[in-house]
Task: structure prediction
Amino acid sequence: MISTSFQFRPALLACTATLLTLSWASAAEPIRVVFQNSRSIPLDAVSLQGENVVIKTASDGFNVGQSFPLATADHIFGERPEGINPGIALVLTGKPADALKLLEPIVVSQRASARIPGNHWMEAAKAALIAYALEGNSAKVTELGKEISDATPAQGADPFTALGKALLLPASSKVEARETALRDLTTDNLPADLCAYASFFRGNVLKEAKRAEEALEAYLAVPCLFPSGNMVINAAAEIHAAEYLATLNRREEAVALLNSAVRDATGTLLSADANKRLESLK
Result:
């Protein structure tokens, strides 16, 4: 049973307010590449050429044409691009074309940071790959899958390429084939975000096949087994799970999941959807 209570202590409220103030104050700051010597430069002032970070725009004491080994780029600093969460929400609600309008510019603007720790490119690129797969654009799935694989330290194809292939299976394919392809991507040895996406879309396949009990289990697996995958994926799964629980007269659990979805997906259409569903359960 998921608790329906969620209260902040006064001290936590004060801390939260402080953190929000700091976040808003720094929101306008450009995303920066921070080198191991603590010097930094705006990301849009550099390009990645092979194994080197090359300065393309003079800034912060760096000159055009200077080149530094990629290994000296310690991390990326700066606010997460605002379009990522809304873009992911659109992917998860079956609106891939709208999602790509938000995600593609981020993929382009953050590409130079793809191989630097703490980058925002990878998350946007993975969501965009899924959007391309939902559109049936196999060429883009292959292209972006290669970029993602090249940006990860592990040898070979990144497992997200397998998710793209699974989602490219046509709706006319047997339910068992589609469901199995996605279930195979929910094992403990795979990244949490991959497992969360795969479990969510497996839930969708089972829901379409009217296999309600299995679909509910797949949706609940997202926030219960892979909570660190992504808060927005959690919210999307919680909304679907709440829908099933409400039909089973398990209203308290449904309300708890919808309240969680409102928090998890703040600033996206999923949060608004969860609020509407909460109203209907009153």
